[in-house]
Design brief:
alpha/beta, Rossmann fold, Structural Genomics Hypothetical 15.5 Kd Protein In mrcA-pckA Intergenic Region, Chain A, 3 domains, 6-stranded mixed beta sheet, 5-stranded mixed beta sheet, 45% helix, 14% strand
């Protein structure tokens, strides 16, 4: 038996909550009108967000969007978690300054394998609709693609900031990259969505969806975008390809340790996006522990959060030790290659700061060559690997 629908609250009450933390809210007045009608008729809106499986794990950056989906869910609306298995073969050019090689079908299938389970760490399983855009995109023939391409102007496509920059600098834009916004927009046509969610860098693609829905005689979707979560490096947006991410499947010790490694400035940015509140002034260490514990609890439960926090406070090394093999090299390079630092300069900073240990001995010389052998490498309190230097 399906669960009874939740009552949909008044429009003004919904809008006040849904607008929190957003960057773009396209046609706010029209959204208010749709929310009003939804409340009066007690008919849910259809809300979707798409996720291309370009890496095997969802990370904290994805959760900013998924939490907003869950908010719509709690207000009684229907949500679609769209797996972009077909668009992933094209490769989203958003924010890229060069051509990205398309993924193979096998890689996409493997990456997507756990997506539809990971999302239920936030979304309600029985109230979430999972769709795969290969369902309709794989059925398009070449005539359909030509028709779709005819719905959009090339000049307008080249107004995209990343395309414009690459064109100005004489860098390549492949033809298939121009198709990406069109096929993403076509997803909205097929699903006939009321609202599409995306990161702030997706605003162009989401508005293409609005345009195409009009072209196909549908009422255009509303667009809501969320801020991009900056990654562990404090510079780039969180991304698995950049190695600056915290995966939601990271073990509790690993997740806790990664979060404790971020700067106080980055912590202040993460708090409102991940916890929905501001950091406590004057208490950076305790605030960081609270952030780490809250996120471990979200994905692993209260018992795991308490256990990991106690472990951290007791200043003990991690319990899940991975094995890594690297070639003999200066210490800073070994640390970087083993995964304990984002770059060589980051590794040198951590060594000079006293946060790097070999077999429990604090290291101070980044240029010291590490001879072949077996070592336990620890960076900070929780990041540790069993190292085999060849």
């Amino acid at each position: 038996m399906s669960e009874p629908r939740r009552p949909i609250p008044p429009a003004e009450e919904q809008l006040e909550l849904l607008a929190l933390g957003t960057v773009d809210l396209t046609e706010r007045s029209e959204l208010l009108e749709r929310l009003s009608r939804s409340h009066e008729q007690q008919q849910p809106l259809l809300v979707k967000a798409g996720f291309d499986p370009t890496a095997p794990d969802l990370h904290l950056g994805h959760t900013v969007l998924i939490e907003k989906m869950a908010q719509f869910q709690r207000l009684g609306h229907d949500v679609v978690f769209l797996v972009g298995d077909y668009t992933a073969m094209i490769g989203d050019p958003t924010g890229r300054n060069s051509l990205r090689p398309p993924l193979t079908e096998a890689a996409i299938r493997e990456n997507a394998r756990t997506y539809t389970e990971q999302c239920f760490k936030i979304l309600e399983r029985e109230r979430t609709r999972i769709e795969w855009n290969s369902t309709w995109l794989s059925r398009l023939d070449f005539r359909d693609v030509i028709t779709l391409a005819s719905r959009f102007n090339l000049g307008r496509m080249l107004e995209r900031r990343d395309f414009k920059e690459r064109l100005h600098e004489g860098r390549q834009i492949a033809m298939h990259e121009l198709l990406y916004p069109l096929v993403q927009g076509y997803d909205s046509v097929q699903l006939q969505t009321d609202i599409e969610l995306g990161g702030a860098d997706q605003i162009f693609n989401l508005n293409v969806g609005r345009h195409l829905m009009s072209c196909y005689g549908q009422r255009p979707q509303m667009v809501l975008t969320m801020p991009l979560l900056v990654g562990l490096d404090g510079v780039e947006k969180m991304s698995k390809s950049k190695g600056n991410h915290v995966a939601i499947l990271d073990e509790p010790d690993t997740m806790f340790g990664k979060i404790m490694s971020i700067s106080d400035e980055l912590m202040a940015q993460w708090y409102p996006l991940l916890l929905g509140r501001e950091v406590v002034d004057g208490q950076p260490l305790e605030s960081k522990k609270a952030l780490a514990a809250a996120l471990v609890e979200r994905f692993w439960g209260a018992a795991a959060a308490r256990d990991t926090l106690e472990w951290w406070n007791a200043d003990r090394p991690p319990r899940n030790v991975e094995r890594r093999e690297v070639a003999s090299a200066p210490l800073f390079k070994v640390v970087q290659l083993a995964g304990g630092a984002q770059s060589g300069s980051d590794a040198q900073r951590k060594i000079k700061g006293g946060g790097v240990y070999l077999d429990g001995v604090r290291q101070q010389d980044p240029m010291a060559v590490i001879a072949p052998g077996s070592y336990q490498l620890r960076v900070g309190k929780l990041w540790v690997v069993q190292l085999q230097v060849q």
